[in-house]
Amino acid sequence: MKHVVKGVEPEDFRAWKKRASVDWKPDYASLQNPEKRSLHKSLLQEQGWVCCYCGNRVSLDDSHIEHFHPQKCYPESALEYGNLHASCTSNPGTPLHCGHAKGHRFDTSFISPLEPNCELRFIYGGIGGEIFSSNKTDAAATNMIDVLKLNIPILKNKRKALLNTILSPDFLGNATNEELTILWMHYRKTDVEGKLQSFAHVVTRFIEQNFPFVINVQI
């Protein structure tokens, strides 16, 4: 899971909600462009253009606006900016994952992308690309992996390919502390367009879990 730091909601989205009157109450079903697209873009920008759950690079065309507290259960939160994220869209013919897999389900034990230490509750395997709970007793983390279907083959294979390329055994066997730190910092930062690399947090977590000294590095 990718940690998300919320920014300020777009002004046009805020203004649209303020148009509420005795004759009209804004709801998510009535949210249309350009306000909806502006909202969607704002969510992507604050996430570095990666999915809030799996961390894959996404765009306006292959992501959707995700309600952490589902609209069906929490209609009062449907337009709250703090409840909204951008999640990748499951491709036709592939298993549902991330926000689409979560659907209308919710439990108070669900881990929010806004939780400051949410990334630390998961670790990654380099050989098979699996994601695991950092602590075997952390049932909530194990449950989130299942709910979001983060270990389906398409996601495992993408993580596996990335980790085995960027952090190959040959590289890790010869890398200096400085090289590992520079690599970690590179994947923690966005590029000139404000975008993160696909699964950037997976790379940094893999470095952290195998080389703990990097966690203390200040960007």
Provide the fold topology.
Elements (H helix, E strand, L loop, with lengths): L10 H7 L17 H12 L16 E5 L16 E5 L9 H5 L19 E3 L6 E3 L5 H9 L5 H14 L2 H6 L2 H12 L11 H11 L9
Antiparallel strand pairs: 1-2, 3-4
Helix pairs in contact: 7-8
General description of the model:
The two termini are 21 Å apart. With 219 residues, the protein is mostly helical. Helix 7 runs antiparallel to helix 8 (200-210). A hairpin with a 6-residue loop joins strand 3 (122-124) and strand 4 (131-133). The longest helix has 14 residues, at 153-166. It has one domain (11-216). It is built from eight helices and four strands, in the order H-H-E-E-H-E-E-H-H-H-H-H. The strands form two sheets. The protein has a two-stranded antiparallel ribbon with strand order 1-2. Helix content is 35%, strand content 7%. It has helices at 11-17, 35-46, 98-102, 139-147, 153-166, 169-174, 177-188, 200-210; strands spanning 63-67, 84-88, 122-124, 131-133.
Can I get a quick summary?
The protein has 219 residues and is mainly α. It is built from 8 helices and 4 strands.
